[in-house]
Amino acid sequence: MRNFLGISDPVEWLWFRDSNASGVARYLSPQQAPQFDRAQEMISDSSPSPPKTVLPSLLQPRVVVYDGVCHLCHNGVKWVIKADKYRKIKFCCLQSKAAEPYLRLCGVDREDVLRRFLFIEGPGLHHQASTAALRVASYLPLPYSALSALLTIPTPLRDAIYDYIAKRRYDWFGKEEDCIVVQEKEMLERFIDREEMLDRNKSEL
């Protein structure tokens, strides 16, 4: 099975930016990555002057960045994890440092994502609010993926409903002082910021 980028699932791929190719995002498989590293070392050893480097990053496709202190958002993430039996979607709390490169990549700030959660589908393709929710649903198995048919509803109408609930979510569902996921460590396996969350939790003990 292939996703929208033509990359086979469920294999993970490394997303990096090539400074020699004007910052174009590329993909390497786990098998290709060591070969890439060795090639870079050979270039470095044989070159009389330091070459432009290819800088790997932690950026990954299909990442949800969401308000980690919000009970409604947390319950939504729990629902997606339960439904996503092929483990296609990954998560990151907005309040973590790991979220910062994704925000920069998409040209949004934390206040934007507090209002409307962010789904980074791949290089140059991200969504917010109701479109983000429905694009996430499209990666889930049936019957959940059928929810993506709601994308045919005009975006302003969908987002009006989303924004109405989002503005009132703390009053209706409550919030915590820190990311709620640290209280349910079995979920952290799906989080790209899990080490940061665990370290933060240890420092507070």
TrEMBL record:
Superkingdom assignment: Eukaryota
A GO term, aspect molecular function: protein-disulfide reductase activity
InterPro entries in the record: DCC1-like, DCC_oxidoreductase
Protein name from the UniProt record: Thiol-disulfide oxidoreductase DCC
Organism: Tetracentron sinense
Lineage: Eukaryota, Viridiplantae, Streptophyta, Embryophyta, Tracheophyta
